[in-house]
Automatic annotation (TrEMBL):
Pfam family, one: ANTAR
Name recorded for this polypeptide: GAF domain-containing protein
Protein's organism: Kineococcus rhizosphaerae
Gene3D superfamilies: 3.30.450.40, Winged helix-like DNA-binding domain superfamily/Winged helix DNA-binding domain
Any one GO molecular-function label of the UniProt entry: RNA binding
Length: 236
């Protein structure tokens, strides 16, 4: 596929708005994975980053179903995303057979959500690998050189953006802000579930409602999500 330069520019501009407004890493991460999915014809995109204990955690994913295999990799410490993180090198698997030959259990989990090909780009910051950007496809085929270059660029831009937001303050807050974003994901998932049940919609549609509300009210995703979760705890 051809990746249009104007589409890449629009994606970068949208992500840059978070930086200009000194926004939160969670918002940046969700914009990053959404744009990568659109630009690179991925059925889903996930972003894994280190937490304050240097353990890899899921920060953002475009699909609630595919987030299951991301979390599977974190739990079992096996799969293409884990390998890219450990080696600091791109891991590209173009067929279901290759996935099964290399990571049999991961391949079974992936097939269960329709994933048959993976292209993973390590995320680097300050000379070391801090995570992995994972592009999943529901059809076989290798990524082109242009697509791979765009994935690299988006991963690098995401790393720079997250690092810049972390360095708004110095010292302990550098890692604390990213840890807050990781913690926020739990609240976000709870809020998505609540909205999905309330409106009888898919969790991904619930997330779109949540994001639209946050943007319309110019509030952080975490704050809007926390408000919804707090409503669940109030006595009827």
């Amino acid at each position: 596929m051809d990746v249009r330069a104007d589409a890449v520019a629009a994606a970068v501009n949208d992500i840059a708005q978070v930086l200009a407004e000194h926004g939160d890493p969670l918002d940046l991460a969700h914009r990053l994975v959404r744009h990568c999915a659109d630009l690179l014809s991925a059925s889903a995109v996930g972003l894994l980053v280190e937490d304050s204990d240097k353990d890899l955690q899921l920060l953002a994913c475009t699909s609630s179903e595919v987030s299951v295999i991301e979390l599977f990799q974190v739990r079992t410490q096996q799969g293409p995303c884990i390998e890219a993180y450990r080696t600091g090198s791109v891991v590209s698997v173009a067929t279901a057979a290759e996935l099964a030959a290399t990571w049999p259990e991961f391949a079974r989990q992936a097939a269960g959500v329709g994933v048959v090909a993976v292209h993973t780009v390590p995320v680097h910051s300050d000379g070391r690998t801090i995570g992995a950007l994972n592009l999943f496809r529901d059809h076989e085929g290798a990524y082109s050189a242009v697509e791979s270059d765009v994935a690299h660029a988006m991963a690098s831009f995401g790393a720079v953006g997250i690092t810049q937001l972390e360095h708004v303050a110095e010292g302990a807050r550098v890692q604390a802000q990213l840890q807050e974003a990781l913690d926020s994901r739990i609240v976000l998932e709870q809020a998505k579930g609540a909205l999905a049940q309330r409106y009888r919609v898919h969790p991904d549609d619930a997330f779109r409602r949540l994001r639209a509300q946050a943007r319309a009210e110019r509030r952080r995703l975490r704050d809007v999500a926390q408000e919804i979760v707090d409503e669940l705890d109030r006595p009827a």
